[in-house]
Amino acid sequence: MATKFLALACLRNEGSGSGPRPHYPSMPRYPKGMKVEEGATMDMEGSEPNKALFSVMGMTCSACAASVEKALKRLPGIREALVDVLNNRALVLFYPSFVNEETIREAIEDAGFEATLLRGETNDPTFQVCRIRIQGMTCTSCSSTVESALQAIQGVLKAQVALATEEAEVHYSPNVVGYNQILEAVEDTGFEATLISTGEDMSKIDLQVEGARTGRSMRMIEDSLQALPGVQGVEVHPELNKISLSYKPNLTGPRNFINVIEETGSSRRFRAKIFPEEGGGRNTHRREEIKQYYRSFLWSLVFTVPVFLTSMVLMYIPGIKHGLDAKVVNMLTAGMIARWVLATPVQFIIGKRFYSGAYKALRLGSPNMDVLIALGTNAAYFYSVYSVLRAATSQDFKGNDFFETSAMLISFILLGKYLEVLAKGKTSDAIAKLMNLTPDTAILLTLDNEGNVINEQEIDSRLIQKNDVIKIIPGAKVASDGFVIWGQSHVNESMITGEARPVAKRKGDTVIGGTVNENGVLHIKATWVGSESALSLIVRLVESAQMAKAPVQKFADRISKYFVPLVILISFSTWLAWFLAGRFHAYPKSWIPSSMDSFQLALQFGISVMVIACPCALGLATPTAVMVGTGVGASQGVLIKGGQALENAHKVNCIVFDKTGTLTIGKPVVVNTKLLTNMVLREFYELVAAVEVNSEHPLAKAIVEYAKKLRDEENPTWPEARDFVSITGHGVKATVRNKEIIVGNKSLMADHNVALPVDAEDILSEAEGMAQTGILVSINGEVVGVLAVSDPLKPGAQEVISILKSMKIRSIMVTGDNWGTANSIAREVGIETVIAEAKPEYKAEKVKDLQASRYRVAMVGDGINDSPALVAADVGMAIGAGTDIAIEAADIVLMKSNLEDVITAIDLSRKTFSRIRLNYVWALGYNLLGIPIAAGALFPSTRFRLPPWVAGAAMAASSVSVVCCSLLLKYYRRPKKLDNLEIRGISIE
Question: Would you please indicate which residues are annotated as catalytic (active-site) residues?
Fold first, then answer.
């Protein structure tokens, strides 16, 4: 699901960038699984995918839909695939250059289903995604009801409802259904629905307009905004003086909107600013929910405490007891009337939420926790009313009331719900922290034609537009994604990537919004703003991950369907068994407490069973742990795309590593230099760099970069090279300072009759044995030096492989490189199994072979050629600095590009799932143990019974304990082995 969000959010941006784009995370520019041929890149930029709608017969459940979806996504050229199991349809967005309808149809049939292309029905516009906040859900029964209602809507392709976040994500065809109908469907199920967002294909902003007092004024402003290029939608909310705009950030931005509004009309009487509540919806909703439960609990205490005192404390104080026992009518006492009056507001006003929730649930045929609470409290309350009425009309009735039971039950359940929403709010702290990273203000620079600063202005950071130049002072947060156009500094990116060490930034380097500038002043050009920023994309990815259900969640969903009806049956059976046992004297009368009779004893057992059972704890066991786990991962630079990736990662016992860019740096560097004559190293490299700077070869660039370090200048000037010639596959030559310089391999030297000394031969042999490329340098026909260039191992690669072995995880290296280099690298890192000269499709085949051998396989890669294997693996892990398609295809993104994060991802997954198992043990064990005790299993032997209000308190505590158990994951620390890991720097001689 997170992959879909990335695709939706980012494929629109092709070809629109100006300047480098930060890779945190990189976004998809090619279809998933596609092998991009050279020259194909430009064909893909900006192209729109084709749509195909298929009828798919034979699907019976969501697992079938998932298998069809995965089969389609493994094809090259697939942008998106959505499978609707209820309507037996699949909507596929694809690039016809890489795949066609017939291949797609065959892929569906290979998955085991019948597929037919519906040719006349593919003119629908591309699907949209809307997010909805849903209030009132209490357990998995509620979320399942809403999900079923949404999936039944014609035009809805997929719907996911998350209990923990109280949100729904709906994929729908806007030509068939609108989001208003989706909201109505949610409200028809009895829950309150609020739209959060519609679609991810455009940026959005809310503006508050002052001075527009009439409808005509608002229409005039609306028309002015609609006329702007790049504005895609304008919604006016006159009652709030609010205007919501959807726009293309490449063409316009919020400052333009404000200027247009303020210039509309002859007297410029309108003023506009960012709407105050922008971005605070989730937190505002959560705070309001916490306040509501807190207020309800306090009011319930106002009435419940006196009820408790009159029934359990004051009755033992002689003077007061006499007053409470004073008879008003027949056997009706003052205490009974006081308790009735005090308990009634708690039952029907403060407890109204349970009645409405139970009614909605029963109307839809899916009983939930509210049904159990309503039945339990009503049984206690109305039996008490019956006792009061009998006492008022009888001369000898001696029954007791249970008003304290119903009032205390509601109070304790409200306390539990208050603590639960308080704890659930903490589970999304990671997202809240990410959203708060961007600074409130930014310094906007105005430049003249020569690039000189002519004006500085402090603006709201939300008003930054594409191509703005922003000044970042030391200690300030970077206000937007962009690249440095002036200045040098170090930037702390730990809040985004988890990388603790500050990163050097100079002209041309990318920066990420929300990171902290440590020392120098930087001028940056904004490239990705608003919803396109790396921070926004990460937030959306984490939100999507928290929405997606882990497969283990299906266990709780299955139980929830039968849980409440079963509890009601057990409760009724408990009451009936104790009632009949009392009626037929199956137990001694001495067992019955003096304050009640056998019927009342049986009723208390029945009520206790009903209120101690807790479906909420089961429903919250998985999603809360996944929420906290994905949030913790994001804070440590490990982006996990949902519960399924998290669940699969903890089972991994084999990891397939790509070589270049994964185990190695992915960038050639000079690792050794041997001079064969007396010469200053700096002068030697000046001559070599003067020649190589004219070449585009990666090895040439590595030599020039090394030469720059010796000069310690950002843009050094090299001597002039005349008569430059590049000999493909051999090297280069030129004349520098009247000296003939040749840089290349042995065959190039032989072609120019340059004799090769024995020392040079030995150095070359040694370099090749170490998987290094040896480069010879001759001056005026004499070999004067040998350079060794290598793609070095990433720091800590050896240690990471060693730690994986200790975790009983097998490591395999698959590379397209030659066998010699592959074996050398494998020996160095400690990998025993090597597959070299492997084409992309062979990498995927190897992954499948390992899976057939009962391995749970993770693939770690960074390139386009790794994407088929990333999709085929149980868990695909993409290196954060890798290519966009690899990141889009992966399940987990390692943003720091450190191999040690492979271990962090697996360890975090294991910890999260051990927490989920503990939650299930707690939730199931609580119910399996609590229900028999509440039913009186211990009463015959110990005379111990659980009063209903204590059972209610225990039920409330169970949900809170499960959420708190998940919250302990916030204190997750990566394995100590990694803390002790000494990350070796890359030594360059």
Answer: 658
